[in-house]
């Protein structure tokens, strides 16, 4: 730990929030840059992020294993082309060990508040496990970390439901589903894995489907010992495999971002996939989307459609509207008696709870700063008014067809250059994104977004915020994003230094001095 700066706890150069892919990746990159004065603040008792929290039956990744891993930490022992949750979590534990990250981890330390100190030019951080201060903060809490569960106001009667209720990301493994009447609320990526996993054991399964998803085959297979041995003995074969997986997805991007009409062929493949599994034309009609494929996340499964045809499964093509005792009533009036409710209703993505806990230079929280404009930042990283703070998987960095690890690694390059620039500037210094630079970046992103399938495909998705703005997805290739985050452009930042001795602002407090970079 570094020196004390007048705060309540130890001072570090960097505080990383979260220990999923983003947080652990940041920690590895810091060590590779020669920075060891940092902590990783984790609210739970182990690493893993969303791959620790989401351990529901059937949980797996829909990105191939060799692409869903760090380029600097190749893994040659993936057992399947698409890995299950337990294997991805084990990989992250391995990364923590292999790169010597354990001494930096602070478990059971949920960040409750972090505030920028304009006099000391550092962040004061309060956590459930103690207080810290830091020159620089990397927020890697991730967009899929805080489950979204309907409130009593949104779903009348929920509070009086006599049975079991839980979210897919907080699975209650102590509750025995065998023989129970279970309601699955939602048809997103988690639901289509849960449904076939629990269908054989429950008494009755009722799926409440507000909007049907597009589902393509999951081209999964086991990876044999000989294949794993080859990758381990000849690592270039694993790199070639990763490169091929990446290249195919880069070529697909234009259909999503510039020519959505080209996705018609993919729709036909999805319909054929459904027809092979679902013989009942009435059920097929309920399961057929009325929007362009890709507008919502495309899902992969070979078992979802077959599970829906089983005798103990009912599909209600309407969202859940209210709860009356143990009876669940859909918006179309359909009803089902159930013993348990499983919410597959997604996460707080465009309204991340961490934003309420980050207080910037002007005393406003990040949530308040984004209240009117929606989530926005410079190059998916820096928010104006929040010096020496950046987010991993920030606004408009999500992907619709490839691996988020690629985006994370690009942001880690940006983080590393940010810290180098602070070193070059020297002394007590901070960089604060210029509001006009943030505006210009977001105008470019939103202009490009206008043609994308996510904005034109005729659906409402979790990519959009409450005002209909797409503040989630990146409207380009991972190559373009890597180029945009290769280095920090100082002209997009203001340099913040302590004001000359004795300087006071209008409130009588010591002021800081902002200088245009390069001035």
From TrEMBL:
Residues 507-519 have a biased composition (Basic and acidic residues). It comes from the Bacteria. InterPro entries: FAD-bind_Monooxygenase_sf, FAD/NAD-bd_sf, Flavin_mOase-like. The keyword Transcription does not apply. The keyword Phosphoprotein does not apply. Residues 500-519 are annotated as: Disordered. Pfam families: FMO-like. Keywords: FAD, Flavoprotein, Oxidoreductase. Belongs to the FAD-binding monooxygenase family. PANTHER family: FAD_NAD(P)-BINDING DOMAIN-CONTAINING PROTEIN-RELATED, L-ORNITHINE N(5)-MONOOXYGENASE-RELATED. This is NAD(P)/FAD-dependent oxidoreductase.
